Amino acid sequence: MPLSDQTPNPRRSTVEHIADELRSAVMTGRLEPGEQLGEADLAAHFEVSRGPLREAMQRLVSEGILHAITNRGVFVSELTLEDVRDVYRTRSVIERGALEVVLDEGHREATADELDDVVRRMRRAAAKGDGPAVSDADQHFHEVLVEASGSPRLIRAMRTLLVETRMCLGELRTTYTDLETQVDEHEALRRTILEATPAKAKSALQAHLDDAVERLVAKRT
Amino acid sequence: MPLSDQTPNPRRSTVEHIADELRSAVMTGRLEPGEQLGEADLAAHFEVSRGPLREAMQRLVSEGILHAITNRGVFVSELTLEDVRDVYRTRSVIERGALEVVLDEGHREATADELDDVVRRMRRAAAKGDGPAVSDADQHFHEVLVEASGSPRLIRAMRTLLVETRMCLGELRTTYTDLETQVDEHEALRRTILEATPAKAKSALQAHLDDAVERLVAKRT
DNA sequence: GATTGCCAGATTGTTGACAATCTAGGAACC
DNA sequence: GGTTCCTAGATTGTCAACAATCTGGCAATC
Fold it and tell me: Which of A4, A217, B51, B174 is least surrounded by CB atoms within 10 angstroms?
């Protein structure tokens, strides 16, 4: 008898909470690349001691989002152009792998529906001219795709890569010049992914990401 | 003027050192899956306080090698059969992705040579009947392949997956009944990977990993 | 006899303080 | 004038002690 399954995690631990908060801060750009994370300040901000804060930071260090220099402190990782390419290259590998699993295991329809929801939301955001919301939906599209694989390890890797993607984007939340184009492209991708042959689907996904990185690199000049 | 490049890391930080040590202990099975990591004992063993030790453990938690339960402690992650399949499925995605990069960027010959070294070492170990050494070489083969991609993110993901692979294997260091077979299979794989068409190379790699997981699952019944 | 309540011991979570190290700035020297 | 050295301040690294929580066993109760 389950009685009350309200608390699968009895209580998110403090370091987990702080780690999530920091990750989010890095992702949204509230903490800029290269910025140092002063322990005393942050500890005061979260109203905890430096101990739990340091533990949370070490987690993000192992995820590659932060990097630590002994006796100097921890900093938000800066992404070189080479890193940007690596993020997208790795995303391409992970996402195509996830897609392969989805197609192999016949979750085509269910995944198609979920992606349709996301695209619909993206379209509504685009209609309102809300660039950031479109960008959010864009990322969510790819996250949903990987989640559909049901592979905890692919999902975990993807989560980190999406944080890094946001770091790449920085202030500019979308590299598209026209929001409608961004929507249409994802709708086309959704259709190709879930209707075409696996080989074509994977090619389309790769092309989509190649385009993205190309636009991003161009803007960064 | 470089003068002395002996210390690219001025000094490996304490938590980094402890994290590596713990990772290695989990990998070699000195810490068994499910085992609890008592903070006081480990801190005494490493001759440090509980602070740095906890920071190191948090790193491995974020890698998925350990998992923490609030007010209960941290434990070595136990791998279900489903996890074993997920590890190998993800390895297949990562390794094929890395192979793709290697072939695309024309590091074929250099990679072939490196892999040849590994296979040669594997053959020597097999000749001496040294199962564990063959198993080490086996893992090294796949690690070298991914390293050849030059992608920091693929390499990082692979490192974690290899630790988990070792955890899957547990006591039995190799699932092959005959060491020579293991060597021959890798030599064949090496040749196919670096001589056949990209598509065939990837298929061969996937088949190789599918075989591995099948043997592993069979032994685990 | 089985269940419940409770307590002692042990373990984890958190904290504040102390030690070690680095950075910035100016003074002394060539 | 430029370089070197040194000091003060701040920041990180580490530690030991305190508080909160959990585990296991024993006694009381139905």
Answer: A4
Whether B99 and B145 have beta carbons less than 8 Å apart is answered as yes
Fold of B81-220: Four Helix Bundle (Hemerythrin (Met), subunit A) (1.20.120)
Instruction: Give me the CATH code for the A14-76 domain, please.
Output: 1.10.10.10
Q: What count of other Cβ atoms lies within 10 Å of the Cβ of residue A13?
A: 18
| Interfacial B residues in 162-221 facing A (CB < 8 Å) | none
A155 touching B (Cβ < 8 Å): no
Q: Where are the domains of chain A?
A: 14-76, 81-220
CA–CA gap between residue A102 and residue A117 (Å, rounded): 17
Cα separation, A201 vs A92, whole angstroms: 12
A99 touches chain B (CB under 8 A): no
Q: Which of residues 17-46 of A touch strand D (CB under 7 A)?
A: 36-40
DSSP A67: E
- Comparing CA positions, the residue from B178, B208, B172, B182 lying closest to residue B193 is B208
Which of B20, B58, B77, B205 is the best substitution to test chain A (most A C-beta atoms within 10 A)? Answer: B58
Interface check for B39 against chain A (CB to CB < 8 A): the answer is: no
Q: What is the DSSP secondary structure assignment for residue A37, as one 8-state letter?
A: -
Contact with chain A for residue B15, Cβ under 8 A: yes
At residue A21, what is the residue type? E
Which residue's CA shows the smallest distance to C1' of C16?
Answer: A49
pLDDT per residue, tens digit, chain A (221 aa), is 443 433 333 457 899 999 999 999 999 989 999 999 999 999 999 999 999 999 999 999 999 999 999 999 999 999 999 999 999 999 999 999 999 999 999 888 899 999 999 999 999 999 999 989 999 999 999 999 999 999 999 999 999 999 999 998 877 777 777 889 899 999 999 999 888 899 999 999 999 999 999 999 888 76
Cα–Cα distance, A194 to B204 (Å, whole number) = 26
Q: Do B62 and A19 touch (CB under 8 A)?
A: yes
Tokens of A166: 């946001």
